[in-house]
């Protein structure tokens, strides 16, 4: 079987272990693949600023797809940027507060905001994803929004909110994806990891067939559907595994990505 010319890696639950760091052996192996001529790209729900907390400074890749395609970098330069429409931001945040769903608004300049509401005083309820030092504002900040996160430890409430978001998608310009049972990512309409990957492919003269994509969540599925090979992590939910062409033998906390890559590209 021909070895894929380009690897696209999700971060959380895939490249990062449960401590949210990359294993040094995996990091070095990925750098070796790049030296051997394989293109390596990151495709993550994180912004470029959030990535800084997870990856060592010496870890280099060829391309970065941030916020599920809302910002794309290649060769160290930003090649595209998208923002969520202000009216969409206003509607989603207002409705989420009414439903008791926590939110964070991530802006292209790197700052994070959240509208002041009674939910602010209930942050102690969160056992999974939580607030990351947002600027609390009286009004909803709608300018230059790169992504929105909705989260709550009540998984059933998140599932119900996702159903409502699916209905709101019919009238507002956005895309919702479940990243984990307690977390929903919001990006721009028709913007996904797949559209971000396509922008990089155009620049290097490759096709989706040349990609092997690794991931563990719902935001990886648009790319899974396009890539020549798609690999779900062993720690992925079954509904993600069922839409991949392959599944790793080990989880992200057992170096499952490294072992699978070595099975394809060798030691």
TrEMBL record:
Q: What is its EC number?
A: 3.1.3.-
Identify the species of origin: Kurthia zopfii
For this entry, the protein name equals Phosphatase YidA
Is Lyase a UniProt keyword of this protein? no
Q: Which UniProt keywords apply?
A: Hydrolase
> Which positions, given as ranges, span the membrane?
none
Origin superkingdom:
Bacteria
Q: Which gene is transcribed and translated to give this protein? A: yidA_1
InterPro entries recorded for this chain?
Cof, HAD-like_sf, HAD-SF_hydro_IIB, HAD_sf
- What does the entry list under GO cellular component? cytosol
Respond yes or no to whether keyword Hydrolase is given for this record: yes
């Amino acid at each position: 079987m021909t070895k894929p010319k380009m690897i696209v890696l999700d971060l959380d639950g895939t490249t990062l272990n449960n401590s949210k760091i990359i294993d040094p052996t995996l990091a070095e192996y990925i750098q070796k693949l790049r030296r051997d001529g394989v293109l390596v790209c990151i495709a993550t729900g994180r912004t470029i600023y959030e990535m800084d907390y997870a990856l060592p400074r010496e870890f280099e890749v060829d391309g970065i797809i941030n916020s599920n395609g809302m910002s794309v970098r290649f060769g160290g330069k930003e090649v595209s940027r998208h923002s969520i429409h202000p009216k969409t931001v206003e509607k989603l945040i207002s409705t989420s507060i009414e439903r008791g769903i926590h939110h964070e608004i991530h802006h292209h300049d790197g700052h994070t905001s959240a509208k002041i509401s009674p939910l602010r005083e209930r942050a102690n309820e969160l056992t999974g994803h939580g607030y990351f030092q947002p600027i609390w504002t009286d009004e909803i900040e709608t300018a230059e929004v790169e992504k929105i996160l909705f989260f709550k430890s009540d998984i059933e409430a998140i599932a119900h909110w996702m159903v409502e978001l699916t209905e709101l998608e019919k009238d507002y310009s956005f895309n919702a994806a479940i990243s984990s049972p307690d977390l929903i990512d919001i990006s721009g309409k028709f913007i996904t990891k797949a559209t971000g990957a396509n922008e990089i492919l155009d620049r290097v003269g490759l096709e989706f067939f040349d990609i092997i994509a690794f991931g563990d969540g719902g935001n990886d599925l648009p790319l899974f559907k396009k890539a020549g090979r798609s690999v779900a992590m062993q720690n992925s939910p079954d509904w993600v595994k069922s839409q991949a062409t392959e599944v790793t033998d080990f989880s992200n906390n057992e170096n499952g990505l490294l072992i699978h890559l070595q099975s394809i590209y060798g030691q």
